[in-house]
Amino acid sequence: MSKNSRYPAYDVWAEHTHWDDHTKQVVGSRRSPQVAYQFFSHSEGLLVQTAASELVNDHRLEVLTFVTQHLDEALASPIGEAQRKVGVPPKKQLYRWGLAGIEAESQARYGTGYVALKKEEQQAILQEIAAGRTQAKEEWSQLSPVDFFKRFLRDAVDAYYSHPLVWSDIGYGGPAYPRGYVRVEKGLTDPWEAKADDK
Amino acid sequence: MTNDSELTHHSVHYDGHHSNQMSQRKYQDGADVCIVGAGAAGGVLAHELAQAGLKVVVIEAGPYWNPQLDFASDELAMRRLGWQETRLVDGQDPLRLGHNNSGRGVGGGTVHFTGVFLRLHESDFMTRTIDGVGEDWPIRYQDLAPYYDKIEREIAVSGPDHFPWGAFQGPYPYPVREPISANAQLFREACEKLGMESVVAPLAILSGPFDGRPPCINRGFCNQGCMPNAKYSGLIHHIPKAIQAGAEVLSDCMVTEILMDGSRVSGVVFSHHGLTYRQKARVVILAGFVVETPRLLLHSATPHFPDGLANSSGWVGKAIMPHSSHDVYGRLPEEVRLYKGTPVLALTQHYYETDRDRGFARGYTLSAHGSRPVSMAGAIAAEREDGTFLWGQQLREAMLDYNMYARITLVGEVLPHPENAVTLSGLKDEYGMPIPKVSFSYQENDRKLYKHAIGEMNRLIGAMGGTPEHVVSDTAHLMGGCRMGRDPQTSVVNEYGQTHDIPNLFIAGASTFVTSGGANPTNTVMALAARTADKLIEAMQLREV
């Protein structure tokens, strides 16, 4: 497994002049996210950003701001959830309770708030929630910690892997309309695609 | 622009009719046929019936997309192509819905399908007789063969000269797609090493110019909506042709009730921008897929039909089937770049037919399947077959190797079971309709089948020189819920999609499937719709319905 990008010199956004206007607008807006929350309180927003940073293992502020903004908009939006398991609270409630649950776990285990913890402690708390081993009884009385973790992980990952900086890290060529991909067979790349740095 | 999920679209680009002017509807005094749902089935029916001179109105809950303005080369933004309204899911294996298997908007699921265009096999229509599982269909392969031919010609399906499995051996109307992606090449080489035949996939994606549309440019965003219009969808093919032939399409209009006049259907009620309208019609065809069609029937109960319309059998909503669609992501020593090219360009049906030595009935298709960062990361993080999560540093490191991964996907048969069902929950949606509940649990044969397939996918990754790293649990497609049959006590519609209980109420689409088959269903959906159209045109001319 790689610890760093195979493509340190690659910047997918540098190609955006070759993209259609709608795609440019959709992807470009992620590079300058808003920070005003519609759904989260200020402290919830900070908590989401801190925990999401552990979920995706990245600490770049511009990327995490977008992840948090995306989550905030998705939760404020009236658009449905596509599916919700019987017994799982609706998305707004799931997040309100789940975030309170993270905070309560932090208080129960370390006697302080989540954002003030060390990274290892923050990770440990998420690990326990993912495994359903929670200590704060009241905060988790109406939701399963595992259901919340799964939803939070999925949402954070959706947003994170939609950011062009992350596309560059992983060497994703991304949008290719109208030009398409010409060299698609084994070992071939179009001139503008990411090229691995062998060193 | 701050919100990816903001509902913006361009319905009014449709010059034939402005769907926001309900006072100027073409057939507001009554249509011959009202079709609910403008997807794979609804598009074919609208086109055929309008061409036959019938007055056709198609009512679609979602927008009338403009590919150039509404689509983007982006996974997150294009989730909106799926049906995002919340459904409750239940059972031991609750389904993922939305973009995973449904569409919303003109073109329905064809707007975001991969375009894999397969026929069912002869055995699929008689699994009870041959294998003692599932149920037999009231039709045989030969009944559908001329309609498969017709649809494949009509949309210029590309595919191999020789197709080695099933009754249809090719050739396809258009030549195979070339070149194929690295992932598809690796898959085919691995198949050959292991003694499995493979082909370049038959696709509803152009390999040469056709009907004013260009061949595919390997952009790879089939699941996000094709922008060059190289991939077939009802949105760019059947619906515009239906409009040209006189049909009217009402988009952004949600049908909330079927109207009855005694024992016959008289039309539907629909909601548009908060106001309620009626559309009268001599015949109503429900083509709203596996969840919405049963939901509408159950919700439209009357004193005459207390258990829901067309439900004297009690089978409305029952025996729904997804395909098991597990994925194996394997890490290779060389770059694969799963984002490049049409997602599915190679497949094998080596394990399609029953072999009792395997310990289960029926079989499956395996496809080389591309993947983009959001779908791969989300799947390996949160949908793992072993029930664990991958996150933090491990997920990050796995995804830094994104370009080193190959992926194989299963389309596995799931046998019908009455407890896998769509029912109405006690919760209401914005229209005041009960939110549907969709229950699903795999049965023993289904589990044995997908476990076998995972084993074979792992072997194929090994034959590529790779290591299977991530096994993802997923499903694809939905079928059943209003199955066809000869016996009105155990089925909802007859072989033509006409409901047993109400002669002028028809059902089209995947909901009438009796079994799931082990292949992508869209070709069968469209062929069945064309067959229904033929029958209906004849019956309406004879005034039989």
UniProtKB/TrEMBL annotation, chain A:
Domain of life: Bacteria
Pfam families hit by this protein: Gluconate_2-dh3
Name this protein carries in UniProt: Gluconate 2-dehydrogenase subunit 3 family protein
Species annotation: Brevibacillus invocatus
